[in-house]
Amino acid sequence: MNSGRQLVLHGAAGRMGQSIMRLLPESTLQLSAALVRPGSALVGELVSSQIHGFQGAVEFSDAFDPDVGCDVLVDFSHGESFSAALELARYRRAAFVSGTTGLNALQQAELAHAAQTIPVLWAANFSLGVALLSRLVREASRALGPSVDVEIVEAHHRHKQDAPSGTALHLGRSVAEGRDVVLETVSVNDRSSAPRARREGEIGFASLRGGDIVGEHTVLFAMPGERLSLSHSAGTRDLFARGALRAASWIIGQPPGQYRMEDVLG
Ligand SMILES: NC(=O)C1=CN([C@@H]2O[C@H](COP(=O)(O)OP(=O)(O)OC[C@H]3O[C@@H](n4cnc5c(N)ncnc54)[C@H](OP(=O)(O)O)[C@@H]3O)[C@@H](O)[C@H]2O)C=CC1
Ligand SMILES: O=C(O)C1=N[C@H](C(=O)O)C[C@H](O)C1
Description:
The protein is built from eight helices and twelve strands. With 266 residues, it is of the alpha/beta class. A hairpin with a 2-residue loop joins strand 10 (215-223) and strand 11. Helix 1 crosses helix 7 (238-251) and helix 4 (128-144) runs parallel beside helix 5. Residues 11, 13-17, 36-37, 40, 76-78, 80-81, 99-102, 123-126, 162, 166, 240 line the site of NADPH dihydro-nicotinamide-adenine-dinucleotide phosphate.
């Protein structure tokens, strides 16, 4: 049942945007605007013409109508349009939930700045399993210590543009936290660019792209004579969409601040 809390969706034409609109009836939120890339062929089309079973007369739009209600803005788009979406939420004093990956340091700072005036939640991965995996990886990293070799391998569909994935970087941060180091000082993304033997303490990343793989992540702890692998495999994008909708419902009414998926899951 909808209680009338209004959700503006940014990146509505994308894979995640479509999944969110399809699953929206499971939530207590109501779509008030479906924002797409400026000039998109979808502008003016009814959402119901694209999303089977969608109820309501919302049209895809490339400009935000100031009369439209916005309790929460949900963004799954691209690094190049993330900042505009965040600015829109700030302007409307609405809560902001984003899963867009490939953000740069400036955008991370913008998020922290926005959190002074609105509640924001950014997560590299909205699945429950990855939230738990991150915790397990931190514990394993702390228990095994910095002499163990850690490599993070991720695989995604052929359309994904950023690499390593946001989730791989998030898991890398969990490894680094377990060792009390800063990820950026020990990470190695592309071994072919500087061929040499592995150094102690490095956290390596490898990315595979192909077909319709939804998202696979493995953190490998390699030690003399034995290996430990902690893995997560996503079978459907719907789990990310459900997690994002759960976060969107939760964050409305929270005080300004920067929240994590762990806060939502409790
Ligand atoms: N945190 C999580 O759990 C998850 C995060 N993601 C991340 O979410 C993001 C979106 O993923 P996905 O839906 O698969 O990607 P898609 O490419 O399918 O969708 C992205 C959408 O953003 C739109 N877009 C791109 N640039 C702009 C712009 N300048 N202004 C407005 N809209 C724009 C695209 O428009 P157009 O269609 O016209 O190109 C597209 O519809 C990625 O960063 C991905 O890594 C994905 C899954 C889960
Ligand atoms: O682009 C995707 O598809 C995904 N992106 C996120 C990431 O970069 O980690 C989350 C998920 O793995 C799917």
